[in-house]
């Protein structure tokens, strides 16, 4: 169930923050400044350090079939072109790390970073998130689910002992950070010692892996699972949920910090003026309840995610 109550998430995350290493505190890479204290990189004050590219490169968070999402996003990208006066190219990324590196290197200008990779993108790539998808009533977010298949013998998280558990990637919140922390804190289960962890690379791959019985269980975002069921990629009766988390914020969209202030303002305008009615974006994301873009604050809305990172001893070191 979708909820607009991130405060509930903090209560769960607070039980995970014992014995947090001091080095795990969130901080921006030394190449970025944060004079206003909003926890994201400032736009460079020196105009010579700002960029105004002739073509904008846009990337959506890694998915199993990027070609599908290139089509889903095309109407929005056409609108972005109209508002900014720039050509826009969809860039299919294969991993969170590649997406972060592309923005850090100046090859990516506008992007949606998934929940778990958002803080790393902010810290290491100068990402400035300002919006996320939501319902018309302002509700947003998704839950992490631990799923298995009927007949697996797994009825509750404690039954994962001795089983194979699929995660997506170490930068993913629902695909790794939250479930690994929760399994340890709530059920005393540790990777390698109590269950065999596997990394699938993507939520859709994990869902299909469980449905096909390649994995005993997996941790996934239920919004992605719902869209896969709706598209007929997997049948609902192939999956069984044994754990559902509190609500987390979803993919955050934003820009590279060093785009000119004028261009950043136009990109924001494009997101908030986009008419979803009748678009493929609405067709795809309304399956998980999203029908509009709303403003967000990385400092406030991602606080629970940073707490989970702290619980996992995440260090924001940028190489």
Automatic annotation (TrEMBL):
> InterPro entries given for it?
PhnD
One term under GO cellular component: ATP-binding cassette (ABC) transporter complex
- Give the GO terms filed under biological process for this record: transmembrane transport
The alphabetical list of record keywords is: Signal
Q: Does the keyword RNA-binding apply?
A: no
Q: Where is the signal peptide?
A: 1-24
Source domain of life is: Bacteria
The UniProt similarity line reads: Belongs to the phosphate/phosphite/phosphonate binding protein family.
**UniProt-listed NCBIfam families:** 3A0109s03R (TIGR01098)
Protein name, per record: Phosphonate ABC transporter substrate-binding protein
Organism (species)? Methyloceanibacter marginalis
């Amino acid at each position: 169930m979708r909820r607009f109550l991130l405060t509930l998430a903090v209560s769960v995350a607070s039980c995970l923050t014992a014995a947090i290493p001091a080095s795990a505190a969130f901080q921006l890479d030394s190449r970025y400044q944060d004079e206003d204290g909003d926890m994201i990189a400032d736009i460079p004050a020196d105009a010579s350090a700002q960029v105004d590219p002739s073509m904008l490169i846009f990337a959506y968070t890694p998915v199993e079939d990027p070609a599908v999402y290139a089509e889903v996003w095309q109407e929005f990208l056409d609108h972005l072109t109209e508002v900014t006066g720039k050509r826009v190219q969809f860039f299919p990324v294969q991993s969170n790390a590649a997406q972060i590196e592309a923005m850090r290197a100046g090859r990516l200008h506008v992007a949606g970073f998934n929940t778990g990779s958002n803080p790393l993108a902010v810290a290491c790539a100068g990402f400035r998130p300002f919006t996320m998808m939501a319902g018309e009533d302002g509700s947003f977010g998704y839950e992490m689910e631990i799923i298995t298949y009927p007949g697996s013998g797994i009825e509750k998280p404690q039954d994962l002992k001795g089983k194979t558990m699929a995660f997506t990637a170490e930068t993913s919140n629902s695909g790794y950070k939250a479930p690994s922390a929760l399994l340890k804190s709530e059920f005393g289960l540790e990777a390698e010692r109590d269950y065999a962890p596997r990394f699938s690379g993507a939520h859709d791959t994990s869902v299909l892996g469980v449905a096909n019985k390649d994995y005993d269980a997996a941790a996934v975002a239920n919004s992605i699972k719902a869209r896969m069921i709706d598209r007929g990629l997997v049948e609902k009766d192939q999956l069984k949920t044994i754990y559902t988390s509190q609500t987390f914020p979803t993919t955050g969209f934003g820009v590279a910090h060093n785009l000119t202030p004028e261009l950043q303002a136009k990109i924001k305008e494009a997101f908030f003026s986009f008419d979803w009615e009748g678009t493929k974006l609405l067709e795809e994301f309304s399956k998980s309840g999203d029908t509009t873009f709303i403003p967000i604050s990385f400092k406030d809305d991602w606080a629970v995610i940073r707490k989970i990172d702290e619980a996992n001893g995440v260090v924001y070191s940028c190489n």
